[in-house]
Design brief:
The complex is a heterodimer. By secondary structure, chain A is mainly α. Helix content of chain A is 57%, strand content 0%. Chain A has four helices and no strands. Chain A is globular, with a radius of gyration of 11 Å. Chain B is an alpha+beta fold. Chain B is built from four helices and five strands. Chain B has a five-stranded mixed sheet with strand order 1-2-3-4-5, with helices on both faces. Classes of the chains: A mainly alpha, B alpha+beta. The interface between A and B is medium-sized, with 20 and 22 residues.
Chain lengths: 74, 153
């Protein structure tokens, strides 16, 4: 696993309060327990911590943790 | 899978009539004096003129939310400033308020931009205040809207 993916999982884990090992790629984002505001804060936190910009057109197609990692890692 | 797509008005009303009622029941402030009475033909005529923007949110094809905007080709005060849009309604079923709403708003801005809209307006109910969410998406609070029911009814 790349350092970036590890860092991303750490950020997501911190934001949603789920252990990194439980953040399986197939886990649906809707099941993370986030409302819209918390979801956009998660995206912004990933962007702030990594310097990666996730384009708007990708955000609406993020359905799983794997999608989110893929969008950030590229 | 949750998807967002621009659709035709007819597609929305084919699936949306139950949600429109739920939307009204949740957010309407004056049910005793302002009953729901959507003029579907009027929406259709607005769409036929190219001035309606219909964005839907579906989960595995089932309608779970929508964003509707009316576009004017230019505001009467600003004839050289390009198209502007006014949000007519947006809604996500309560059980899907787990990130869908923000995606819907992001898609709304993105797809309106694709249509050439230069400035978008959106209003929110004070009882369901999304100011922080909208500001986090780059919207700016600029106006307060006041309403008053008129007449003796």
């Amino acid at each position: 696993m790349s350092l970036l993916r590890t860092a991303l999982l750490e950020i997501i884990s911190d934001e949603v309060g789920i252990l990194e090992e439980d953040l399986k790629p197939e886990l649906q984002l809707e099941n993370l327990g986030l409302d819209s505001l918390e979801f956009i804060h998660l995206i912004q936190e990933i962007e702030r911590e990594t310097g990666i910009r996730i384009p708007d057109e990708r955000i609406s197609s993020l359905n799983t943790v794997g999608d989110l990692l893929e969008a950030a890692v590229g | 899978m949750i998807t967002f797509q621009v659709e035709k008005w007819k597609q929305l009303i084919a699936d949306g009539q139950k949600i429109f009622i739920q939307h009204y029941d949740e957010l309407s402030l004056e049910k005793d004096r302002v009953p729901l009475g959507m003029d579907f033909d009027l929406y259709q005529s607005i769409e036929d003129k190219g001035n309606l923007h219909v964005l839907t949110c579906r989960k595995d094809g089932e309608l779970i939310g929508y964003y509707i905007a009316i576009i004017v080709n230019h505001h009467p005060h600003y004839k050289d400033s390009g198209p502007q849009s006014t949000t007519d309604m947006f809604y996500i079923l309560p059980q899907y308020r787990n990130g869908c709403g923000v995606k819907l708003l992001i898609e709304a801005a993105r797809t309106l931009t694709e249509r050439g809209v230069k400035k978008a307006f959106i209003g929110i109910k004070l009882k369901q205040d999304h100011t922080e969410l909208l500001e986090s998406l780059g919207w700016t609070a600029t106006d307060k809207v006041f309403t008053k029911l008129l007449g003796d009814k």
